[in-house]
Design brief:
Blueprint (H helix, E strand, L loop, with lengths): L15 H13 L12 E5 L2 E4 L4 E4 L2 H4 L8 H13 L11 H13 L6 E6 L2 H16 L3 E5 L8 H6 L17 E4 L14 H17 L4 E6 L15 H11 L3 E5 L23 E4 L10 E6 H4 L15 H16 L2 H22 L3 E7 L2 E6 L9 H13 L2 E2 L1 E3 L5 E4 L7 H16 L2
Parallel strand pairs: 3-13, 5-6, 5-7, 7-8, 8-9
Antiparallel strand pairs: 1-2, 2-3, 4-10, 9-10, 11-12, 12-15, 14-15
Helix pairs in contact: 3-10, 4-10, 7-8, 11-13, 12-13
Amino acid sequence: MSIPQERRLVTAIPGPKSQELLARKQSAVPPGIGTALPVFVTRAGGGVVQDADGNSLIDFGSGIAVTNVGNAAPKVVERVQKQVADFTHTCFMVTPYESYVRVCEKLNELTPGDHEKRSFLVSSGAEAVENAVKIARHATGRPAVVVFDHGYHGRTLLTMTLTAKNMPYKEGFGPFAPEVHRVPLAYPYRWPSGPENCADEAVEQAIDVITKQIGAHNVAAVVIEPIAGEGGFIVPARGFLPRIAEFCRANGIVFVADEVQTGFARTGTMFACEDEGVVPDIITTAKGIAGGLPLAGITGRAEIMDKVHAGGLGGTYGGNPLACEAALGVLETIEAEDLVARARRIGEIMLPRLEALKERFEVIGDVRGRGAMIAIELVEPGTKEPNPAAVAEIVKRCHAEGLLVLTAGTYGNVLRFLPPLVIPEHLLEEGLGILEKAIAEL
């Protein structure tokens, strides 16, 4: 690794150069583009990011689950450098190229299920989800789409409508797209009658809404994250996902797994829905697919995907050749370095440490997640009342000590951890120590 794998602070966070750049950002970029940690990065790799002031921070964010294989992963860099010298763009719909086809072949091979599949490529997770809905509506001739409490699916008009949380994603941006309906998610920690009843009751309530308020025969697609991302890394109660998928099959509804954040080894399986053997009709992928280059995929059953007429799908930049080569480099890296197992190992280190903190500190209400997609939910001690103030203070302390952490949650009270799967274990342990100190000092 060319970047030393160490935390090193030479200035306050942010340092003077980052502060100068932040002032320029504020003059040039609208405030609607927020910043979690205003340090301006100059290099990154392994488990660290380096900023303009020479500070080296431990990375528990991976660019929101994008750099699963690490920043500037060698196989990604090598492939992209070669491609950028050959050609940068032709538009696949004008003159195609092999790397696009190879990525689609790999998606068809790696995503759950042994049925015949088709894939195509776009530029973002929101675009992938939007296309999944388009295809489901076209294939079924039905209008309605069902989504879940706490779900996040993007910032376009349709995907913003699919997203549950109002602030900051939807506030002031309406009116929203029609024929989108929301049902309960099996959220074990906050289920009113307790986690032991969560799966059964959530399934019953979701099906009741679909059958009585919408009509199952009117539903084109059910769209769900196998682990809710922005909603707070909510792992649905076991049994919930398989039963929703079964209901969809029985009623001719396209079951869409939004694996934009959970995909590509992040959760200790290649895709999160594999954990319970769920085989989606369509799966959407992005984030970790191409190591930071903009790429997303829509993979579905051939009989569904083939229904769309020629020209009905596409986009100028979808499947850009640089991003396709990056994706092939990512997949090579995941296989060569067995990053699926590495994600499980990260979970084996983090979860017991966090559970031990939960035993010590009442402010931690819940520890949850799978593999290297883990979160803690913070509450007012002795209650389940959300505690976003504690989250803000912990984040502030972690950032000051050189640990990059992210927040999430419908109630703004979740700390989420998404370390690169290649992070050295000593940095993982050091980061957990910084987190523990920040919690202890609340």
